Amino acid sequence: MTDIARRTGPALEAHQQFILWLVPTVERFPRSQKFLLGDRIQSTALDVLEALIEATYTRERRGHLARANLGLEKLRVLCRLATELRHLDPRRYEHAARSIDEIGRLAEGPCGARRR
Questions:
Q1: How high is the pLDDT of residue 6?
Q2: pTM of the predicted model, to two decimals?
Q3: pLDDT tens for residues 6-53?
Q4: CA distance to 31, 73, 100, per residue, from 86 (Å)
Q5: Mind listing the domains of the chain with CATH numbers?
Q6: Residue 103 neighbours by CB distance under 10 Å
Q7: CA distance 57 to 38
């Protein structure tokens, strides 16, 4: 495993686990939102997964990690919106928020502090 894969690999694995939890969770949304808000949440999560894969297997990882970080921020907002609309219960929202935070920390690695 290369140095880059070692640094981004844990974030990639954590995000895959998050998606495995997220997909069945979104399937519980009401029909009217499953295909609107639910699809947006799932496609954003898959975009983050793609960015993490690209960061893991390319030399220039900064742009890919920035895209992944932006996607994680979008996921935070979309999950919060789903909670406020009562499609996602607070306990599941807490799990999602903690998972997203962990993925963000893992993706950064030892190279820098998170921008907020």
A1: 56
A2: 0.85
A3: 556 899 999 999 999 999 999 999 998 888 999 999 999 999 999 999
A4: 13, 20, 20
A5: 3-106 (1.20.1440.60)
A6: 27
A7: 29
